[in-house]
Amino acid sequence: MGRLAKSIVLREIWEKIVGYANADLSNADYAENFDALYRECLRWIDPGAAGKLKASIPSAFSIEANAVFEGEQSVEVLVAKHQQDIRNVLRWLSRPGQVGDPDAAKDALVFLRRNVESIKWEFHVNDSFDPNRRGAAFYVAMPMEFPSIMSPFCLFIWRQIGRYREGDGELKEVIPVELCERPGCGRFFIVERLRRGRFCGSNCRAMDWQAKHPSKDEMEDRGSGATTKGRRKVLGVLKSESRKHKRRN
Q1: pLDDT-derived band of residue 217, with 50, 70 and 90 as boundaries?
Q2: Which of the residues 15, 131, 161, 194 has the least number of beta carbons within 10 Å of its own beta carbon?
Q3: Buried/exposed 69-90: b ≥16 CB within 10 Å, e otherwise
Q4: Mean pLDDT, the chain, whole residue set
Q5: What are the two backbone dihedrals, phi and then psi, of residue 139, each rounded to the nearest 5 degrees?
Q6: 225 and 109, same structural domain?
Q7: Domain end point (choices 169, 197, 229)
Q8: 14-40 residue pLDDT tens
Q9: What is the domain range of residue 88?
Q10: Dist CA 232 CA 227 (whole Å)
Q11: In this predicted structure, what is the pLDDT of residue 164?
């Protein structure tokens, strides 16, 4: 797979992870989207993984609607349970070193590590090793079991963190996730261009601008309120001075 094709695949997975983090899970239509996310991660890990894994946790909602994982919990329950965990991870990755709560970043790291380290692997010698091929692998690692429904996503994210650490692109190129800056929004989005992107959409951009640039009428209303408040303060001072003057006399 060429670099451009690979970057497109990686971006599509990021988009699906962000979609999961933002999703309204009360909407039954989301089941199909989660299924697509899970299978896309499996294909990224190993094109044939879906047929090899002992616990190829599929979609809850289509192929194995009654499947249970992680302590006999249904997939529906786990999808809802871990949504906030994924949101915490994305919040940390979107603002590394800027998270207001240091414990939140630590919790995100622990969540990633726990779900990556729980994967069971098989290792095989690369019989087709080519010494003339730069970067040829001495062995092949194949995932055989995902005890957690979150493991494929966490492995994907973990590998992207590793890519950035190794210098394989700028931060927002490798991890193109941002948190909308409009207060009260809380949605994540995919950065379209490097060093650009502060809002999840045009609506939030417009609302943020309006909040910082109030109209003339709004300014007059605020001014009237400030004037009224000021007048009340002055009247209060005058009354107080008047009472003091009467006591003296």
Answers
A1: low
A2: 131
A3: bbeeeebeebbeebeebbbbbb
A4: 77
A5: -145, 165
A6: no
A7: 169
A8: 999 999 999 988 877 777 788 888 888
A9: 3-169
A10: 9
A11: 94
